[in-house]
Amino acid sequence: MRILAGPVGTAEGLAAEQRQCPGNCPQPPQGEFPSDRHTTLRDILNSPPRPEPFLQWTILRRQPSIAPTAGCGGQIIGEMGLEVTPFSPRNGLKRHSSALHLLPDPLSIGYSDPFKKAPPIGSLPPPRPKPRSTDGGSAARSLSMSMIFLTAFLACSPLAIGDEPETPAVEVGLPWVMDIDAAKEMAHKEGKDILINFTGSDWCGWCKKLDGEVFSLPAFHETAGKQYIYLYLDFPRSEEAKAKVVDEALNGKSRDEMGVDGFPTIILADHQMRPYAKTGYQPGGPEKYLEHIVELRAKGDKIKALLATEDEAQQGEMLPAAFDVMADQGLLGFPAFGKYLEMAEKSDNPELVKRAASHRARGQLLKLLNTQEPDFPTLVQFLKDNSEMDGPEVLNALWFCQGWLAEQGDKDGAKLFLSRMLNSPLVKDNDRGRKMIEDALHGIDHDATDGHDHDGDGIPDH
């Protein structure tokens, strides 16, 4: 299973926002979502693989109290309360009382097997306080446009509502260091890298599961201990656990610089704490996890080699390979790596320039999607100007905009965007997704009764 949908927004009171989350095994997050940080739909819909059923998430808003309901993400709903409201691009918002709507795969556009990469099992950190609107109407109007229509090819978690993941009994503990400066000094003296565990020790169920299945077992330390200093950056909730944190501000700074929004997130970094790999929970115990980080380290060696040289000619030769790893791991936002993005943009390597431009364009698209008030004309023009862009966020934006174009009477524009979706490699082998797009194309050319969207899901019923 793969969850690769577009971003969710930053509107006031939203449950989640956009980020590029690392790793490859989705799981349901524990705890709450930050109201001023970026999160993707992946973080909301992470769950262990299981074929059925599929789930459509559309609008998520904080609710003061909603009882847990059946379906994926019950822990989220039970803990913080979410409302999921179906949305029709053509017919507007339609409110429903239920928190979750299980649908027969309404939109599974490439958010599954075509992707090689997926996020880690993880939980999100406690939210930072932020005022919330008490006006339900204005809150709905201010929802991020990208949250209004987000769907995913999602398998539900086998966990019961409110369950914590089963955590194996801890056998031993790693020699975790909680002081960043001390960890860097130890790594420098011992010639090791740093394995950083961003965790929520007293509230994150998947963090406990990772510790119980991997970090607590001797087989992991026997191998990893030869290469890494273990740095434990905790973001707990209880006062007792908070008292053990060495430097909360520095921990937070490291989290932000490394683009960490989900827990557990595991970062592999050099002795100066410059990251070269990012992951999270992985099933299979210590042996599988060791194999996983060996693969990450091998790719990260390209970044480390680039960091190790000051010679501009050598940097130019190494940059193409290292750039791909930085982009793939979501590390280009790290302050020390910004210069490499600029180098890529100025490179005489056309392919590298193209990849850098694609990265910049994706960032621009995410900003357009993360707006409280939809700016459809600007977004439509952006998609036209960047006709070669592809990816989950692009598909999401195309689908969202084709509905708006159809409402404006621009049937040709709507059909052009739908055709572009059909031509995306991400939907090539997705029969259900292709049928949904084809049905939407068919519906544009028919009157209000033939192919009318009775259920308000944005898909013609006939």
Question: What would a concise description of this structure say?
Answer:
The protein has 462 residues and is of the alpha+beta class. The chain is globular.
Plain-language structure description:
The chain has 17 helices and eleven strands. The protein is globular and about 70 Å long. The chain has helices at 41-45, 74-80, 136-141, 145-148, 180-190, 205-215, 218-224, 239-242, 248-257, 285-308, 312-328, 338-345, 350-369, 376-385, 392-407, 411-422, 431-444; strands at 54-57, 59-62, 82-85, 87-88, 92-93, 101-103, 150-152, 193-199, 228-234, 265-269, 275-279. The chain has a domain at 180-296: 3-Layer(aba) Sandwich (Glutaredoxin), CATH 3.40.30.10.
Strand order of the largest sheet: 9-8-10-11
Q: Give the C-alpha Rg.
A: 22 Å
Give me the CATH fold name of the domain at 180-296: Glutaredoxin
Proportion of residues in β-strands: 5-15%
Topology as a string of helices (H) and strands (E): HEEHEEEEHHEHEHHEHHEEHHHHHHHH
> Cα distance, first to last residue?
29 Å
Specify the helix fraction band.
Answer: 40-55%
